[in-house]
Amino acid sequence: MMKLLIVDDEQIEREGLQAILQRAFPELVIKQAKNGTQALEIVEEFHPDLILMDIKMPGLNGLETIERISSTYPAIKFVMITAYDSFNYARQAIKLGVKDFLLKPSKANEIVATVAKVIKQCEEEKLVMAREKIQQAALHKTLQLVETDIVTQLLFDHVHEVHLDMLVEMLGSETSDEKFVIVVFLPPGSEKYYSLIKEKVRITKRCWVGALYGRQLPLIVFRDKEKSFRSQAISLAIEIRSVAKKEENDNWFIGIGNVCYSMDGIRQSYQESLLATTDTAIPSKYRFYQDLRPSNMSGVHKTKQKGLYDNIRLGKWEDVFLYILNVIQHYENKNVPLLEIQQRVLELLWDASRIISEMGVEMDTPLFSFHVNNGRELRAETSLLVSRMKEAYSNYRDHQEADTIHSIKKYIIEHSHEDISLDMLGKNVGLSPIYISKLFKERLGINYIDFLTECRIEKAKKLMTDTEKSIKEITFEVGYHEPNYFSRVFKKMVGTSPMEYKKSLLSKR
């Protein structure tokens, strides 16, 4: 509904204009002001789209009133009403952005035509703004999906070199060469805090938030050179834990990995952040990996670990459990502290969990529910965690990879115009995002983003045969939200820009 304000010091002029306009535009909401000062007050509450402004008025004249209103409400349109056909007035009015003039007296049809023209302009601008708002909302949603995808690929070693730089540029975060990973472990039932944590850490503009896997929420944090590493990490940990009430976040714990200097080093920092969460009983509820006691266990049993991994893939869980028991016994014989043994066992369990996750098995990250007090408790807890992995693995074996690949490809083809993320894809086909990424890479030789991009580009090529469609329209129709990004992807895939490709199609006709 459009709103109009008539400003004139002569009542008969105001009433006459309102009568003419109300007959021509029944839906138009009209108010009147008898001078510039009153107009300023009405605008504050009424927020008109268009103002018919008389030039000559006592007190504030029309041009002065327009200047004051425009400084606060630049979107309001103005039509000047004057009995003076003066170039000087016109020049000043044009500088203030006045859209048109009405000379006193004007014919009714001239008044209607002038107002109709400006109303149409207002409506077109509102439509453009509404479209831009929708596009911005869609872009914001897309960027959130992009962010979780990047974190997933980096942490689980499925980085796609072609797209990563573009995706990072799209996010517009304050990145730096130095980065580290923190992992937030939430208690059962705390998934509701996921979106709140994302909102909290995004204020810093220095974090990428990954997807929530079970109770584990990973974040890639970029170093703030104006703070020390420890102060930045501690500050962020406190901010995250402030999301929940004190009585609710006592079971939250945050592990902080070491700083790394390349994208390739992020996975190591991630593993370190996981190891830092081994003992969650400390009062601060966060721990740096660098604060763990150095272990003399690295390298032990390394020659036998390949056999362990093979047994995991083959589902020989009795042999897996026996291997871990032998590791425990080996460290006990060397009088290694119990906490360090627990850390090493947990690392082996994480390796096992990663391997079966890549095979498509969905399960929570294995964690000891308490700090064990003796070897018997350690063996019992380890047995329980291995049994859970065995059960999850057994439930998975019914999946057939050929049918899986077919269903994934079919879904992507049918929904390529939508915002598809690994997490969303996994939920729709009932598989883990990590497994889908690995499946594409190993079985099809491409990343899932590659396949999605190919689908979109092929669809774009077909749409370009329609001479009525612009490149911008095609951009949105195939699933992109930013024409410049679409053009860059298209040129990388096809070897020529969308406009050049479309011209070549037309020239062949």
UniProtKB/TrEMBL annotation:
<feature type="domain" description="HTH araC/xylS-type">
    <location>
        <begin position="406"/>
        <end position="504"/>
    </location>
</feature>
<dbReference type="InterPro" id="IPR020449">
    <property type="entry name" value="Tscrpt_reg_AraC-type_HTH"/>
</dbReference>
<dbReference type="Pfam" id="PF12833">
    <property type="entry name" value="HTH_18"/>
</dbReference>
<dbReference type="InterPro" id="IPR009057">
    <property type="entry name" value="Homeodomain-like_sf"/>
</dbReference>
<feature type="modified residue" description="4-aspartylphosphate">
    <location>
        <position position="54"/>
    </location>
</feature>
<keyword id="KW-0804">Transcription</keyword>
<protein>
    <submittedName>
        <fullName>Response regulator</fullName>
    </submittedName>
</protein>
<dbReference type="InterPro" id="IPR018062">
    <property type="entry name" value="HTH_AraC-typ_CS"/>
</dbReference>
<keyword id="KW-0597">Phosphoprotein</keyword>
<feature type="domain" description="Response regulatory">
    <location>
        <begin position="3"/>
        <end position="119"/>
    </location>
</feature>
<dbReference type="Pfam" id="PF00072">
    <property type="entry name" value="Response_reg"/>
</dbReference>
<dbReference type="InterPro" id="IPR001789">
    <property type="entry name" value="Sig_transdc_resp-reg_receiver"/>
</dbReference>
<dbReference type="InterPro" id="IPR041522">
    <property type="entry name" value="CdaR_GGDEF"/>
</dbReference>
<keyword id="KW-0238">DNA-binding</keyword>
<dbReference type="InterPro" id="IPR018060">
    <property type="entry name" value="HTH_AraC"/>
</dbReference>
<dbReference type="InterPro" id="IPR011006">
    <property type="entry name" value="CheY-like_superfamily"/>
</dbReference>
<dbReference type="Pfam" id="PF17853">
    <property type="entry name" value="GGDEF_2"/>
</dbReference>
<keyword id="KW-0805">Transcription regulation</keyword>
